[in-house]
Amino acid sequence: MPGIRALIVDDSAVMRKIVERTLRQGGVDMEIVAEAGNGEEGLALLRRQTFDLILCDINMPGMDGLGMLQQMQAENLARQVPVVMITTESSESHVRSALMYGAQAYIRKPFTPEQIQERVLPLMIGA
Amino acid sequence: MALDPAIARAMHRVVAAPLLAANPAQALDAAVQEVFERMLGIPDVEFPEGALVVSSAISPLVPPLIADVEILMGAPKDSSEACPSPAQPMGWQETVSAILGFAGKLSGSCTMSAEPEAVAVMAWHLLSPPLSQRHPTMRDPHTRDLEENSSGVCEWPHRGPYRLDGTLLDAFGEICNMIAGGWKNWMLGLDSGCALSVPTIVSGSDYELHPVGDRLLVERTYHFCGHRMLLAIRCAAADDIL
Fold it and tell me: Which pTM was predicted?
């Protein structure tokens, strides 16, 4: 698998680094990792660059993760790119909304490295 | 509207994990243990002081809940007594508190307080990869012996002065965020009627927090790696929740 271009959207810089580290430890070869602190910043990057994987939190100041997914659909952005939600929110409505707005996987924080690998690696192989 | 089977299967994987907790204190214990074990690599969090308080400051909660918790913990508290500040526990010189808000079916706050070094220890564990995944040549030579001789759980290599910078406080806030989210999930299960705010960090000494209108208070002191932290959940709730 060649190096991928990943976008990590989370208001916590620490959590962005942990997600990146966990993916690298799980064998995901990442050539580029772009970071955004909320949905607006994520959309701005998506309008300018192409990514192979998007990892996104839900609760963020400004535009949240679900808002970003909705806007991606509205603008037809990154239609073929796998989106994985990584969030503390695990209520039925959040999961349902995220999946209906185009997320392919949903991981609840706190997560284990194994969970990240189980949910993300198949998406990369299928991409 | 019928749910797409693929979405239903994906939902099951996510939401089947948490079960509803028997009471708010057990939910808090479960949330803390889950975060410390999965994210910090500290499986042994202790709560030897049993410092739990359940109070109905304004109007009574479901009475059996309070009775059960008091019996369980042996630490009943007069519900008419004013709630103490969770930010400055007795004997703590300086604290750092992460505060997160609940809004909706549960409304109130989750406050996690600790002394600065405890905050640094927690953040260090969150930010450090597990020992098994660190390459020996990448380790700090000053701490290598300590790491190799330790159980691999509670090593804290830094000695001397340290500074709580933005990264450590960010990590502390994230830990509180995951605990609060976990507590909410244990309490409400699949219910979606409660939103979480982003964390706010307060630090210093000689300050108090004054939440308004809370009906439930759960306070718990946890010990880890020779340090301690205090977690306080204060909230009001729709009558059918608690």
Answer: 0.80
